[in-house]
Amino acid sequence: MFDRDTRILLVGHKDFRNIWLGETSAHFGGQLTSFLLPLIAVTYLHADGTGVGLVSAVQFVPVVALSLIAGVMVDRYPPRRTLVTSTLVQGAALAALGAFQATGGLSFGQLVVVAAVIGVATVFYEVAYQSTLPRILPLDSIAAANGLHQATYSVSTLAGPAAAGFLVGRLGLSPTLTVAAACCAGAAISGLLLRGVKAPEQPRESALKSIGSGLRYTWSLRPIRDLCVQAGLSNLHEKAFLTVFLVFAVRGLGMSGTTVGVITGIGSVGALIGSLTANRLTRRWAVGGMLALGAVLAALGLLLVPVVSQAGVYVAVLASVAMMLNGFGVALFNVFAVSLRQAIPPEHRIGSVTASYRLVALGTLPLGAVVGGALADALSAGTALWAVGLSYLVVSFWLTFSPLRRARTLEEAQQLGRTARTDRSPVV
User: Fold this and answer.
1) CA 133: distance to chain centroid?
2) Distance of alpha carbon 182 from its chain centroid, rounded?
3) Are 352 and 68 in contact (CB under 8 A)?
4) N or C: which end of the chain has fewer CB atoms below 10 A?
5) Which residues form the Major facilitator superfamily (MFS) profile domain (predicted)?
6) 302-323 pLDDT, tens per residue?
7) Looking at the structure, do residues 38 and 175 belong to the same domain, yes or no?
8) Is 63 in the same domain as 129?
9) Do 164 and 176 contact (CB within 8 A), yes or no?
């Protein structure tokens, strides 16, 4: 299942094995929680659609509000501290929610506060984790590590919501919250085992100045800037498409919500395949080429959905295949995009680049949802599906004009970054 490089990482690198096991626990608990919190709003608190949307949104808002601050902290303090603290905060919030429910005092306001706290802690954990990998691994192992990371995410995306539904149905809410809190505890234990990884030395400057210099560095370095733009545009179109697809599938094709969920979830199978094969593909093809190909395949997969919807038969099956192609392309892009943004910056810039990238890449998601909904209302859902799909295909070629396209290896991309660097802050 795993290639040779991945097996070597799992068996021979203690620090990576510990942090990956912690990330696996954190991802599974996170996917379980992200499904569980809106479910609580619907089933236990009988919230309306706006309330359910609020519970989902407050978990995401911290990505926009706090990513840059998280980047500064990760660059200034040992990652062990951030990883452990963030997971303990998540576990405590979930335990408090379970206590409120067990005593019959759970309110909608408490649910929103807990969702916001979990969202904040998740931002710090993700930035810390992604910034730690290049500090504990050699450059030639980063792609394999990120492939494993993406595979973990894909499996968690499939298993987390299903586990949440099963546990709530069989055990009830409080025991399910206990399971989610236990996942956080497992991630915290893993973080405690990460010893000897120190924060990089860097110039002394205020947090505000550090945020500003990190943003300037990220935007002035074209390879990183191109990655940010492609990720932001891709996520905007992905979210817009899925918003329109939900409306189109239910109202235009008469599908049930369960069928739509299965079709969308099958994309994670393609993502799992892409993440497990990405490292092998670089043995024959260039990293930059695989990166650009991933973006295009992701767009083609979604554009195939309105195409197959005209078939009249087996639409659900054909749409699922299209979603698998999309998932494969997204995983391929993510593995190499994360690897490149970890390889190109100097060590003392990894945290700020990770935070800036996530701000741009994930900050377009709510905009995509709004745009998708507006297009579905202004046009028809079917027409909007074509419009978003075609637009996505056009912007997916952005990286074909980037100097990253020429990089065959991570080492070449790193050298490309050094050549293009315009940052004038001291390098230590």
Assistant:
1) 16
2) 22
3) yes
4) N
5) 1-408
6) 999 988 888 777 888 888 899 8
7) yes
8) yes
9) yes
